[in-house]
Design brief:
heterodimer, A: about 240 residues, mainly alpha, two-stranded antiparallel ribbon, two-stranded antiparallel sheet, 4 strands, B: about 100 residues, 3 helices, about 85% helix, about 0% strand
Chain lengths: ~240, ~100
Amino acid sequence: MENPLEQFAIKKIIPWQIGDLDLSFTNSSLCMVVTVLFIVLTMSLCLRSRAVVPTKAQAAAESVYDFIHGIIGETLGRDGLKYFSLIFALFTFIAIGNMMGLLPYSFTFTSHIAAVGTLSVLFLILDIYFGIKHRGLRYLHTFFPEGLPWIMAPLIIPVETLSLLAKPFSLTIRLAVNMSVGHIMLEVLGTFILAMGLFGFIPLVADMCIIMFELFITLLQAYIYTTLSCVYLSMAISDEE
Amino acid sequence: MAQLPHDIQQLDKRIQNLKQKQKRPHKKSTSSVQIWAKALRLATDFVAPVFVGISIGYLLDKCFNTRILFVFVWAAFGLAAGMLNIWRAAQNMEKDINKE
């Protein structure tokens, strides 16, 4: 039986080491590059004509646009539309990255805590930047809400800081764990297909069902990640405490 | 030709409706996907600060050689932050229900 965790192994394609820093181009990096190229090419091809009466391809691309527009409207409101390109890039990158992992012999970079964690931390830094840009020094009230007595500061400041630091952690764990578990399940059932001989059709049918379910999960996780990122951004830029 | 004013009236009505629709704030839909999202958010939003708190405590203990003093203190902060997250999420849900 094959090791179901082998699919998550990072393999160096172009090794590159600077001192202790490993900057090698890996299978994970390759999948990220392919994902970005796929999104850019598909969107460019679909929106090539830009007709008033859209073609099927243009309508498909526009429906993704409408979907993201809806998420932003529900979480950030109309003012949030200035972050559209950022949120659109985030959703498509995660959704296509998740779906690419379902292809045979591909690699799911969204199942790696390091990859998703970096993205989440980057988004937290952007949240803080946009928060300070919008609210100036009032952003510091995130850590100590206005109106509280100063004696509460030693208790409230660590709690609010932890609450902020936990956001990228919870985003990362939710996505990476969901992706890993689904792929492990597929791999384990896949090995049973040949091992069970004549009865191999049972795990085969189960595998097919799980692939359909995983397809739903990939989109659901991308939706959750994007929605929560928008919620955290709205919390950073909103004056409500 | 006699139909034209009626057509124009209809068109005007449709334009007015559309304009009003655009003016309205986005209504929050409660689809099953959103319920999934909220449920998953609540679960991790409670646990995540505890883990982060324990990790910070562990690092501080290692720095100051204090066994598990900071782990206890930061785990308590994490627990409080987790409860605060749930409290805020519940408040937001209540706001959404009241708006609807």
